[in-house]
Amino acid sequence: MVQNSMSHGIITKQPSVVCVAGDYPQVLMRKERGMSLGFRVKASLDASAAAAVAEVGRVTEVNNDTFWPIVKAAGDKTVVLDMYTQWCGPCKAMAPKYQELSETYDDVIFLKLDCNQENRPLVKDLGLKVVPTFKILKDSKIVKEVTGAKLDNLVAAIENVRSS
């Protein structure tokens, strides 16, 4: 992205690279005098700047910045969110089964959220009490919740929401 601080205009050419030009009038003066423009290039740290995308048929890791944009982009598709922690034994046991579910349902979006300190605001907003917790969303609203490593309950909840 090329950004000038005068007009705050942004031109996106490559989402993974940010070019910061600084003060636009100085850039024009330097250009008129034949001087180098001196752009700084840095990697983009804004995860939401790169299009937040979830693919059907695989589990997509989300965070504070990407969760709601993906859910909103899903529209009326069913979205299943696995809220887990790295240290949770039942979470680890459910991970391969959750991956298999994502490959089974081609009309459902499967997401996972590491409930660590970085994602604490989203975890709090979603009302996590135990891990693993699976939130099922439709039209950007939580419609079902399954707590614990209960695959049969999760499958039944997904089927129920898909058919509604």
TrEMBL record:
CDD domains in the cross-refs: TRX_family
Question: Which SUPFAM superfamilies does the UniProt entry name for this protein?
Answer: Thioredoxin-like (SSF52833)
* One Pfam family recorded for the sequence: Thioredoxin
Task: Name its species.
Answer: Penstemon davidsonii
Segments forming domain Thioredoxin:
41-163
Family, per entry? Belongs to the thioredoxin family. Plant F-type subfamily.
Q: What is this protein called in UniProt?
A: Thioredoxin domain-containing protein
What taxonomic classification does the UniProt entry list for its organism? Answer: Eukaryota, Viridiplantae, Streptophyta, Embryophyta, Tracheophyta
Q: Write out the entry's keywords from A to Z.
A: Disulfide bond
